[in-house]
Write a structure and sequence with these properties.
Elements (H helix, E strand, L loop, with lengths): L1 H15 L8 H11 L6 H5 L3 H7 L5 H13 L5 H12 L10 H17 L7 H4 L5 H9 L4 E4 L13 H10 L2 E4 L10 H14 L4 E4 L4 H8 L10 H8 L62 H8 L17 E4 L4 H7 L11 E5 L6 H15 L8 E7 L3 H9 L5 E6 L26 E5 L8 H8 L6 E5 L10 H10 L5 E5 L7 H9 L5 E5 L10 H12 L7 E3 L26 E3 L7 H13 L6 E4 L9 H11 L3 E4 L10 H5 L2
Parallel strand pairs: 1-2, 2-3, 3-4, 4-5, 5-6, 6-7, 7-8, 8-9, 9-10, 10-11, 11-12, 12-13, 13-14, 14-15
Helix pairs in contact: 6-7, 10-11, 11-14, 12-15, 16-17, 18-19, 19-20, 20-21, 22-23
């Protein structure tokens, strides 16, 4: 199956490849050497000058690059640029690659390329990867490093049950996270291959993280069934939602039975307090099945995963093995509708191994749904063996429910919520479910709150901040206040309560009148990362340079700060002031500076580069210059980049300012 695909890709590559003449002897040698790396003497290759080896790296395919990497690293040569080159060949030359280390770039390249080749995609850069290596051998090599596996309905999944069985065995050991991004219709016979692979990787393998995009709750119920929840018999709920389609899901069955009888394993009367009768949460589901020959006994509906193994795994004699019971530590449901939430909630009270839960929805959860979720999480939290520490929920109908969730999950270390206040709650801020005055001290370390651009108040957010003295990371976005209110109160609360804060990210909120509060915050902090993205810092300033200079002076007094983001603040002509970060006897230790989307003209960037040349930073600084109008004067822009190069690395893109005038108009 894969061999035919490889042959087709190679034939297509020959037909579509542009004719490029090799204009120099060096390029000819590099091209020929890259085609025969396996035949070259490794010792002789490594004795070549470093410059020649670096020139050779972009010509190598992933198999040769992986084989050479340990020896090259031993010689002090990084393969980072070669991995990035392969990634850009696949995704396109202008793709933004936010990868900073050799291992990160290798991991992203291997994960991406494996999925493309295994599922038979015919995109650019693929043919080069198996031009001089057998495709099966290449897949086996890559599989050892694959950590993220994307499950999608495909005829290629059948190969895992025959010629590519060794490949699946390797993936079981290497994969750590499974993505179910495409709909799997569990009522179709061909879905058995996807269910089999899902079962093998989750239960027989090492994967602990699961990310689901499918809005159909049936596949979620198949994965979670028999997880051990004793709270409710959700089966009736599933059947009522999906009728015949969901009728395939039943109670725990005897795996050696030949009929459809099932004994009930979920007792709706048992509660989480029955500690002695808790079942170890597992990922295996139990389903009725129909016996018969291997092909004939496969029903059209989902079956017990052990029967999938019995069907697709070769064995002598009768099947006597029991499948292992894997655990899911992290679950993300990216499109969680009310039906999916209804499937999930009954399992939560005894899902003791669950450490991280993410529930994201395009629509707003009702208050009743969130309260039901909170009660289920409260039962889990009250169990001494609970492992849940990270929770992400979106979208909540009002901010007070954030406090409700925190009160229910007393052990949370990280909470991320998105809030879209509904019309009836605006202004009044709803009848609160939990009085914030009784919210006790929280162990929360990370808090992320995102609201749309609607008028609201800061009461719930400030309450949580004040009751979370251990916060190390805070992200707040989109909050709009009335003209009589200010975000100064929020900044003051952070300054007074969050003495351990290391990452502060404020985005799309108006801080134009908050300079005194910002300066006060910076006087007594240990921040390592600070972001004021789209915070309209200079919006009301009559003297923008003076404002920015005062901010820079305070930033220099934070010796722990290494990342600063001032993106989308309309800094424009004021940008050269930032060079003062690195002047004086105590220059800033910032290593990453984001000034993207600030409508910086080429001449202004040149002045910044000239000032940095006179007062160079104590370390190289990575400067993000994307989405600035470089095309207004390309000659000066490139001169500016050359002036920055001795002290800075920079991120740039092909953004064209004439494609949009929004930033320009805002600076007029």
């Amino acid at each position: 199956m894969h061999e035919e695909y490889a042959e087709e890709v190679l034939r297509l590559a020959v037909k579509t490849a542009p004719r490029r003449s090799l204009t120099s002897l060096k390029r000819i040698c590099l091209h020929v050497a890259s085609q025969h790396v396996a035949a070259l003497d490794m010792t002789a290759l490594l004795e070549l000058p470093t410059s020649i080896i670096k020139d050779l790296l972009p010509h190598l395919n992933i198999n040769d690059l992986n084989r050479l990497q340990p020896a090259l690293n031993g010689k002090g040569i990084s393969t980072y640029s070669a991995w990035i080159a392969i990634l850009r060949e696949i995704k396109g030359a202008h793709c933004v690659v936010d990868l900073h280390t050799e291992e990160e770039s290798k991991q992203e390249t291997v994960d991406t390329l494996f999925q493309l080749i295994f599922y038979g995609f015919k995109c650019r850069g693929i043919a080069k990867q198996f031009s001089n290596v057998n495709i099966t051998s290449l897949l086996l090599v890559m599989a050892k490093y694959v950590k993220h596996f994307y499950l999608r309905p495909s005829i290629f999944l059948q190969s895992f049950t025959n010629e590519q069985r060794p490949l699946l065995t390797i993936l079981e050991k290497s994969v750590r996270c499974v993505y179910v991004k495409h709909h799997i219709d569990v009522a179709k016979r061909e879905s058995r291959y996807a269910l089999y692979v899902l079962h093998r990787i989750l239960d027989h393998g090492e994967a602990k993280d699961l990310i689901i995009y499918d809005q159909d709750p049936v596949i979620l119920a198949w994965i979670l069934h028999a997880r051990g929840s004793r709270h409710a018999n959700h089966q009736r709920h599933i059947k009522s939602m999906h009728g015949e389609k969901a009728s395939c899901i039943s109670h725990h069955t005897n795996p050696t039975a030949t009929g459809g009888e099932a004994s009930a394993s979920l007792d709706p009367e048992t509660t989480v307090e029955d500690e002695g009768s808790l079942i170890t949460p597992c990922k295996r589901g139990k389903f009725d099945f129909v016996s018969g020959e291997q092909e004939e006994r496969m029903p059209k509906s989902p079956i017990d995963p052990e029967l999938l193994c019995q069907t697709f795994t070769p064995s002598a004699g009768a099947w006597t093995k029991s499948c292992p019971q894997g655990q899911i530590h992290s679950l993300q449901i990216r499109e969680c509708g009310r039906n999916s939430l209804g499937v999930l909630i009954p399992f939560l009270p005894t899902w003791l191994c669950l450490r991280s839960l993410t529930l994201q929805s395009c629509s707003i959860f009702s208050e009743l749904d969130v309260l039901t979720l909170a009660r289920s999480l409260k039962q889990l939290s009250d169990t001494s063996s609970s492992s849940l520490t990270d929770l992400t929920v979106g979208v909540l109908p009002h901010a007070a429910l954030m406090e409700t969730l925190l009160a229910a999950c007393s052990n949370l270390r990280s909470l991320s919520v998105e809030i879209h206040p509904v019309a009836e709650n605006l202004g009044l801020q709803q009848t609160k479910v939990v009085d914030s005055t009784v919210l006790s001290e929280l162990p929360l370390e990370k808090l992320s709150v995102k609201e749309p651009q609607v008028l609201t108040n800061l009461h719930s957010i400030i309450s949580v901040v004040k009751n979370s003295p251990n916060l190390t990371s805070l992200y707040i976005s989109g909050i709009r206040l009335s003209t009589a209110s200010s975000h100064c109160e929020l900044l003051s609360s952070v300054s007074e309560s969050s003495h351990h804060l290391r990452r502060l990210n404020l985005e799309d909120i108006n801080l134009s009148d908050c300079l005194p509060a910002i300066l006060s915050l910076l006087r007594n902090c240990i921040l390592e990362e600070l972001s004021f993205k789209d915070c309209r810092l200079l919006e009301r300033c009559s003297d923008k340079e003076d404002y920015l200079r005062r901010l820079v002076d305070s930033l220099k007094r934070v010796p722990s700060l290494h990342s600063l983001c001032l993106s989308q603040n309309r800094l424009a002509k004021s940008i050269p002031i930032l060079a003062e970060l690195f002047t004086g006897s105590s220059p800033s230790t910032v290593k990453k500076l984001d000034i993207s989307s600030n409508y910086i003209q080429p001449a202004e960037l040149l002045e910044l580069g000239q000032r940095l040349a006179r007062h160079p930073p104590p370390q190289r600084v990575t400067v993000d210059l994307r989405k600035n109008p470089w095309d207004r004067d390309q000659k000066i822009w490139h001169t500016a980049l050359r002036s920055l190069h001795p002290v800075c690395d920079f991120l740039i893109d092909g953004w064209k300012s004439r494609d949009t005038m929004a930033d320009h108009i805002s600076n007029m």
